[in-house]
User: Which sequence fits this backbone?
RNA sequence: GUGGCUGUAGUUCAGCUGGCAGAGCACAGGAUUGUGGCUCCUGGUGUCGUGGGUUCAAAUCCCAUCAGCCACCCCA
């Protein structure tokens, strides 16, 4: 009696029929990052729990209820990484990297209730530009994000930007919100009453109609920015305009991680359902210092591959070609079989993806297998070919075939390859 | 963490008020043992998600549990 195992809730297998799609998304991200002169960084999947608690913020939902925290055998507290920025900044500090443009891709973990576009182990791409506080960099990072999505063929998304200012203006604004909402406490939903204390900005996002009416006349973040922050935001918009990036200013954008300052942005696709954020990011000028480095500014974003895939599929976009062999061998008889084994090996060493199913019996079954494999070329070896030291090369798409001397295999295949 | 819906073959699902577990697709083999795709024929013991309960009898009714989906929440 063998035990059947199931994978944990909120995780999933990426099967061969899908893995090439993921590979494609990763390839395009790499290429886009290359264009902007970013370099890949790979950090561990788990780190000191404290790193995330301090940087992401210990009042945030991520830290309060979504982290996978565990102790190792020596009772050190670790967490499966819930996001990518803190580890990258940690590595930046630990390795004394100079001003850096870094990108990463990999699994993140959050103990959330699974839903469409939301998993407990999910895969992100992201990047960080550490070392500059020039507003052009904000625009460039946003441009890269947009560039990536457009390279994939996506069009139906919208970019929303906001400024949350520095810590001082953030605090002033939170207080203003509390003052504005507190006379109406009794009219708010339970969630909103919690938000008043925990994160007043979330009040603006509430979807319940009775709460929504207050959002309209609520104080606006942008009015609480100090001159410096306001000027910075203007410059970011200036560079976005110059680059030709379309955006909407949405003063209600709130990022869920505590370390953000100034620029905050999101790219949304409303066709995705409840989890409509394709990607999100912002500036984090205090984070490097907080993690133990010098006072170095930074900005970055991260997006989820799952939602990207959903969006691509929804729009009928291509993920490149599904991998398949170019050549498939068909052999009849024992001598031919041995000859086929040699030819297969020869083709592979030549760099031509080739397959051969030695288990298949009849000629017909082998032809079926060749057809199903997607190979454009079948090489047939039987008694006649053995006798004459030839090979029959068949173009599976045209249905045509020719018999060539066994030594001319390479030329013949290259010729067919060019035709298709 | 909260709510709603759903778990039957590899997959999509049917199985009405309890009475022998089914279909399409996919897959495999075959239709004068050297030619694929189209067509036709043949092939199913599958823990009916899991555990318990009711009953002569449970895929079907009840409870619990796990999982999936969708929404809340949150965010990628």
Assistant:
């Amino acid at each position: 009696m063998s035990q059947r195992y199931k994978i944990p809730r909120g995780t999933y297998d990426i099967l061969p029929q899908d893995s090439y799609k993921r590979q494609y998304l990763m390839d395009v991200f790499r290429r886009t990052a290359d264009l902007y002169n970013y370099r890949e960084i790979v950090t561990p999947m788990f780190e000191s729990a404290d790193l995330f608690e301090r940087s992401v913020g210990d009042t945030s939902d991520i830290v309060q209820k979504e982290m996978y925290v565990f102790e190792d055998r020596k009772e050190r507290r670790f967490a499966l990484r819930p996001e990518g920025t803190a580890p990258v900044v940690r590595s930046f500090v630990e390795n004394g990297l100079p001003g850096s443009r870094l990108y990463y891709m990999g699994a993140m973990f959050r103990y959330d209730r699974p839903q469409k576009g939301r998993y407990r182990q999910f895969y992100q791409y992201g990047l960080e530009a550490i070392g500059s506080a020039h507003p052009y960099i904000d625009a460039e990072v946003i441009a890269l994000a947009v560039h990536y999505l457009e390279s994939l063929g996506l069009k139906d998304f919208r970019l929303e930007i906001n400024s949350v200012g520095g810590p001082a203006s953030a605090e002033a604004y939170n207080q203003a919100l509390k003052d504005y909402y507190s006379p109406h406490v009794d009219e708010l939903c339970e969630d909103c009453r919690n938000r008043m204390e925990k994160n007043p900005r979330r009040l603006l996002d509430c979807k319940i109609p009775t709460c929504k009416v207050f959002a309209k006349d609520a104080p606006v973040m942008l009015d609480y920015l100090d001159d410096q922050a306001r000027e910075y935001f203007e410059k970011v918009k200036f560079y976005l305009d110059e680059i030709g990036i379309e955006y909407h200013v949405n003063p209600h954008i709130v990022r869920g991680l505590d370390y953000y300052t100034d620029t905050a942005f999101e790219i949304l696709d409303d066709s995705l359902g409840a989890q409509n954020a394709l990607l999100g990011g912002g500036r984090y000028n205090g984070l490097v210092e907080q993690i133990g480095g010098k006072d170095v500014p930074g900005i970055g974003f991260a997006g989820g591959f799952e939602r990207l895939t959903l969006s691509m599929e929804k729009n009928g976009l291509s993920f490149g070609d599904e991998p398949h062999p170019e050549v498939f061998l068909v052999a009849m008889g024992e001598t031919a079989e041995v000859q086929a084994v040699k030819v297969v090996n020869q083709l592979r060493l030549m760099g031509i993806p080739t397959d051969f199913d030695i288990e298949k019996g009849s000629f017909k079954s082998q032809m079926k297998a060749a057809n199903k494999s997607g190979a454009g070329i079948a090489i047939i070896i039987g008694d006649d070919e053995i006798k004459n030291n030839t090979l029959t090369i068949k173009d599976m798409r045209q249905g045509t075939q020719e018999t060539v001397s066994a030594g001319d295999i390479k030329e013949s295949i290259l010729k067919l390859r060019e035709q298709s």
Remarks:
- The mean pLDDT of chain A is 91.
- Residues 94 and 278 of chain A are 31 Å apart (CA to CA).
